[in-house]
Design brief:
The protein has 414 residues and is of the alpha/beta class. The chain is built from eleven helices and 19 strands. A six-stranded mixed sheet has the order 11-6-1-2-3-19, sandwiched between helices. A hairpin with a 2-residue loop joins strand 4 and strand 5. The protein is globular.
Length: 414
């Protein structure tokens, strides 16, 4: 372990796999990927940690693989947070402009943001992230930066993400148990959005669906701002489970069949091709039409896309989401996912892969790396030189102060 250049580390702790990335920070904000690691595990279920030792072990294996490739020792990391327990909502509050001249100052902006984020939440929850959406000056909405404008009323419109205290504590416990300190915790759909969405898509209105093993995370963008986030308890594991049940085959074989022979739309396959499928209990194999495998997967994909779009358009008119749907995450790698979504929803659909990175991008160019890549992009301000692995880190609130401060500034890249 010899390198001493500044570096960034991200950890995406998913329902079935931990992904770790190490990147060097170059001049002009460039991020060069120098190491990556993955480890399968069963320590979480639908985004929630259910087995601390198993999760710790998976984090260790993923980070050690990345360390060997990069030639550095990981000290701290930016970590993604998600799961059905995450709750988000929009908050909008008004303050009076203080100056007699009615010229809006930074203090007025700060008071408006403070008022918007000072909203009641359950006692067992805490604020993870507050994202600035827009300002409203005397009824004029869509203002990105009101500094210097004249008005008597200033409203701040923000998106607030909250998470149970127990969730962040368990996540910290697992990461610290692997010998890594947490510098920031970032909402995973936000991170994936940073990696795969373009500014034009966010302006025109777009839905991001990050399809993981146990869940699908949704981020809805409208007029350049995050408008809605949600987590759906449907992921790639359910596709595998459907195959295992209907084909009467063990889950590991169902996963292999899905990756090797599966598709989310039957029209992509030769439906008469026969596949030998292992029977449950080691009772030999039985022939199955490849087209039947696709039919099973297509039915689950159709359900997923319908649920995603229904959630995305519950409070936002579909006509305001002109850029359509972007699919990312490991589940988006199944052949035909974009084609099936276009057929079901009748909107533009594409597969989103990470962008904005350099270095070993060829090894992290698949949609399953979107979240880990986005965590690097958002956390680029926290690069530090490699040191020995630290002891457990401190409280969550202290770790998030810098992150929240960046997100409140009008020039934020998020």
């Amino acid at each position: 372990m010899t390198k001493t250049t500044p570096y960034l580390v991200s950890l995406d702790i998913g329902s079935s796999k931990v992904c770790a990335l190490i990147a060097e920070t170059g001049s002009e904000g460039r991020i060069d990927v120098v190491g990556k690691g993955t480890a399968t595990h069963k320590g979480t279920r639908k985004g929630a940690i259910i087995d601390v030792p198993a999760t710790v072990e998976a984090i260790k294996r993923a980070t050690e693989e990345a360390e060997i490739m990069a030639g550095v020792q990981i000290e701290r990391a930016v970590v993604g947070v998600s799961g059905p327990v995450v709750r988000s909502f929009n908050s909008r509050q008004v303050v009076a402009v203080a100056a007699r001249s009615r010229e809006i100052s930074r203090e007025d902006i700060g008071r408006a943001l403070d008022a918007a984020r000072s909203c009641p939440i359950p006692s067992d929850y805490e604020i993870l992230t507050v994202l600035q959406r827009q300002f409203v000056v005397d009824g004029q909405d869509g203002v990105a930066d009101p500094l210097g404008m004249v008005g008597s009323r200033l409203e701040a419109d923000v998106h607030v993400v909250t998470v149970p205290v127990a969730t962040t504590q368990n996540l910290l416990k697992c990461v610290n148990g692997a010998g890594v300190s947490v510098t920031e915790m970032i909402l995973e759909p936000l991170a994936a959005s940073e990696a795969v969405l373009t500014p034009d898509e966010k302006d025109h209105g777009v839905v991001l669906a990050d399809i993981g093993g146990g869940t699908t995370e949704i981020a809805v963008w409208r007029q350049g701002a995050l408008a809605h986030t949600a987590v759906i308890p449907i992921g790639g594991d359910l596709f595998t489970s459907d195959l295992a049940v209907l084909l009467k085959t063990p889950v590991p074989d169902a996963e292999r069949l899905k990756k090797k022979y599966g598709a989310a739309i039957t029209g992509l396959l030769n439906g008469v091709e026969m596949i030998d499928v292992p029977r449950t209990g080691g009772q030999g194999v039985h022939p199955v039409l490849r087209g039947y495998i696709a039919e099973i997967l297509e039915a689950r994909a159709r359900e997923l896309f319908e649920v995603v779009w229904r959630e995305a358009t519950a409070d936002i008119p579909a006509q305001e989401l002109r850029a359509g749907l972007v699919l990312t995450g490991g589940g988006a790698s199944l052949d035909g996912m974009a084609d099936e979504a276009e057929q079901v929803l009748g909107i533009p659909v594409r597969i989103g892969s990470p962008r904005g990175l350099s270095g070993l991008t060829d090894v992290v160019n698949g949609p399953e790396w979107a979240c880990a890549a986005g965590l690097l992009l958002i956390g680029r301000g926290g690069a530090a030189a490699p040191k020995n692995k630290p002891k457990a880190s401190g409280g969550l609130l202290a770790k998030l102060k810098n992150s929240l401060g960046r997100m409140f500034t009008p020039a934020s890249a998020i």
